[in-house]
Amino acid sequence: MAVVPYKDTPDDKKSQVAHMFNSIAGKYDFLNHFLSAGVDIYWRKKAIDLVARNKPQLILDIATGTGDFAIEAMRLKPRKVVGVDISEGMLAVGREKLQKKQLSHVIELKTGDSENLEFEANQFDAVMAAFGVRNFENLEKGLAEMYRVLKPGGQVVILEFSKPKAFPFKQGYNFYFKHILPVFGKLISKDRAAYTYLPESVQAFPDGPDFTTILTQVGFKFTAWHPLTFGISSIYVGTK
Asked: How far is residue 89's CA from residue 85's CA, in Å, rounded to a whole number?
């Protein structure tokens, strides 16, 4: 059974995820930085370092949210970054950030379903995602779409939460995720389900070698897994 934010509603996961992010959009950036003690900024920088390898000019940012990953990609000096997300609330916050940073001419944020992308095949030099693929209703379908729109030789870079294995980080991480994070998440965002869903979705996600296996199954070559911060998050890469 799929892990969903709101267990008392019959809506599908995609609808629930969109509603959840619309609900917390105004607090999302603050909570990201607060609950990770700012380490999420470092993680994005490390992921963009890997995106930089092929010097991409046209980049697709899947599940772009408020656009932080797309904004970080600006240091690569791309010609264009397109961000796609199912939450219009998150995109609205992102567009305000782009206007303030005067980046709207380079970064375009669009409402869209990452599992049914509107783009033609073989279009983007790089496809990236930060903390988004875990929320796909159909993981394989979403990854296959990322593969489809990527140019031959192009690279996918995915940043996602993972599960530490070593003592004592595993125990401390699990305690924080299950008991501390939901409390602060509810207090600040007023949506307890969102920060109860987070640890549940991370626990259910096929991280590490299991995820690189799925990348290979949908067609990616030269897949690799780069754990970060004792395995709290990971970067995955692959080539079309």
From this structure: 10
